[in-house]
Amino acid sequence: MADTMARTSFSATNLTVYFQSARAGLESDLGARLAEFVAAARTSLDVAIYDLRDDGVLRALKSAADRGVALRLLYDAGPAQHGGPVADPKPGTTGRVIADAGLAPFATPYPERHGQLMHNKFIVRDHTALWTGSANFTGGGLRLQDNNCLVFDDPGLAASYSAEFEALLTAAGPPAGLKADVAATVGTIGVEPLFAPEAGEGIEDAIVGALSGAQRVRIAAFLISDAGILQALKALHDAGADLGGVYDPGGMADARRGSHQDPALWWFLKDPNFAAAPSHPFTPGAEQDFMHNKLLVIDGRTVVTGSYNFSEHAETNAENALVLTDPELAAAYESYIGTMLHTYRH
Fold first, then answer.
1. Whole-number Å distance between alpha carbons of 147 and 133
2. 95: how many CB neighbours lie within 10 A of its CB?
3. Three-state SS letters, 257-315
4. What is the pLDDT of residues 6-51, one digit of tens each?
5. pTM for the complete prediction?
6. What is the largest CA-CA distance in the chain?
7. Residue 295 neighbours by CB distance under 10 Å
8. Beta-bridge partners for 20
């Protein structure tokens, strides 16, 4: 029987989800959970990470390597404040931090091309377990920001992510036509992994398809700027669907800056069923406290989450998203969003 009572986690067969929002009273201790996940490795760790600077995670990775675990670490090597939204620039220091932690022999830099990021945040452990979600492996990502992370114990799903990792690692970018996403069932939960940029418009299409005709949608999004997703949400709003959620004000300011979208598509910024998180603008040299989720809950049954921001830019990044189908899981995610929404409206 799944556990939906704990406000900071959800547990089901071969799946645990952690919900983090310290300012909304949801403290899941993501840093310790991630370090524990790494420490449990017996044979291998494949890490694909956009930003890695958390001391506890770095120590756990070094300890694993020292005891003979086969560690491969792929990280985004783009320069600071290059690519991605202005509200959430990467410091550009991940490579130096990795070297200082003694992890350079295990690390491969992923070069950005034309601002296309390696924006993943996942680890495959021992070819059987998977950590993924919206949190970067930084103090801000694991403690200050609003994020959700998922841990699967499922060799089939791990294999899909391993295939993606191999493609990113060996080609410094997935070859055209790679199809690593295979729908699966973990316990009773339907799981469909999707990977960009291979998917092209496929992740957007999956989201728009899931939204089509929906009666109830809850949203937690750093930003929403993808035209198709904005139009789908506007259609639901105009049809009288029950919509609500939270967003990051800095992320949304970036989404609107220079945008040529119809202003009517930003209706939710003034809707009382939505709230801006009390996060702060990017500050150089500090850990950030963004509302960093990329999360949809649709009709109390479908959850979309992962590293994939709801933007056109995400289609060309290296990203991953999950479409999860289960009413108990959806209820737990909706409760998470509801707690943030209640807090941020009061």
1. 8
2. 15
3. CCCCCCHHHHHHHHCCCEEECCCCCCCCCCCCCCECCEEEEECCCEEEEECCCECCHHH
4. 489 999 999 999 999 999 999 999 999 999 999 999 999 999 999 9
5. 0.95
6. 58
7. 26
8. 147
Architecture (CATH level 2) of domain 9-345? 2-Layer Sandwich (3.30)
Tens-digit pLDDT profile for residues 201-218: 999 999 999 999 999 999
Query: Could you tell me if 123 and 38 are in contact, meaning their C-beta atoms sit under 8 angstroms apart?
Result: yes
Place of tokens 């291979």: 198
Neighbours of 1 (CB within 10 A): 7
Token code pair at residue 331:
């209820």
Would you state the torsion angle of the CA atoms of residues 305, 219, 236, 345, taken in this order, to the nearest 10 degrees?
180
Written in H, E and C, the secondary structure of the chain is: CCECCCCCEEEECCEEEEEEEHHHCECCCHHHHHHHHHHCCCCEEEEEECCECCHHHHHHHHHHHHCCCEEEEEEECCCCCCCCCCCCCCCCCHHHHHHHCCCHHHEEEECCECCECECCEEEEECCCEEEEECCCECHHHHHHCEEEEEEEECHHHHHHHHHHHHHHHHHCCCCCCCCCCCCEEECCEEEEEEEECCCCCHHHHHHHHHHCCCCEEEEEECCECCHHHHHHHHHHHHCCCEEEEEECHHHHHHHHCCCCCCHHHHHHHHCCCEEECCCCCCCCCCCCCCECCEEEEECCCEEEEECCCECCHHHHCEEEEEEEECHHHHHHHHHHHHHHHHHHHC
Q: Residue 305 and residue 20: Cα distance in Å, rounded?
A: 14
Q: In sequence order, what are the beta bridge partners of 16?
A: 11, 151
